[in-house]
Amino acid sequence: xxxxxxxxxFVLSLFGASVSWANxxxxxxxVVKIVDAxxxxxxxxxxxxxxxxxxxxxxxxxxxxxxxxxxxxxxxxMGKYYRRATPEQRLRFANVTxxxxxxxxxxxxxxxxxxxxxxxxLGPQGRGRETKxxxxxxxxxxxxxxxxxxMESEESGWMLSNVVINNINFGLTFRKQFGVMMxxxxxxxESAITAWRDSLAKKS
Length: 204
Description:
Blueprint: H1 4-42, H2 46-49, H3 53-64, H4 70-78, H5 87-109, E1 112-119, E2 131-139, E3 144-154, E4 157-165, E5 168-169, H6 170-184, H7 189-203
Antiparallel strand pairs: 1-2, 2-3, 3-4, 4-5
Keywords: Signal
InterPro entries: MlaC/ttg2D, Tgt2/MlaC_sf
Protein name: ABC transporter substrate-binding protein
């Protein structure tokens, strides 16, 4: 019996690893679908979309709506201040964040080379719920953009929980920025949201 137990533990560990890897591949497949949508619906049609910001924003929204919960993302950005915010303030913050990011990153997608977008094989993963999927984007003007998509499995499918672009953690960066705005506005959430909107608008 004492010899059987280590064998069982070994077999179970292999089974667990295979399940984890399978889940990781599902996350990667979800990212492949996102990237393919960027390539076909945005980058390949850049000549039209460059002159139609409203259509560009709509197409980016259609892609991201399937994989991004902006309410949850906004909750993470607000951090400890989320509980203090009223439902109306939470909704306003989520809408401001979503609208501005769609405009900002929609226009940046037009600079990508559609033939040089590469979803990399899965690398080593952490022990949390997230699966990291790396994608290399090459710009038409030259230069490489590496984006790490952090995916989480939800009831509705694989959802994007965070993004790291060229080693810049956007979820963490945004949370720090909003914290600074709260300090600058004497912890007044309404004023901080307005400052947040103006800050994001300058980057669009």
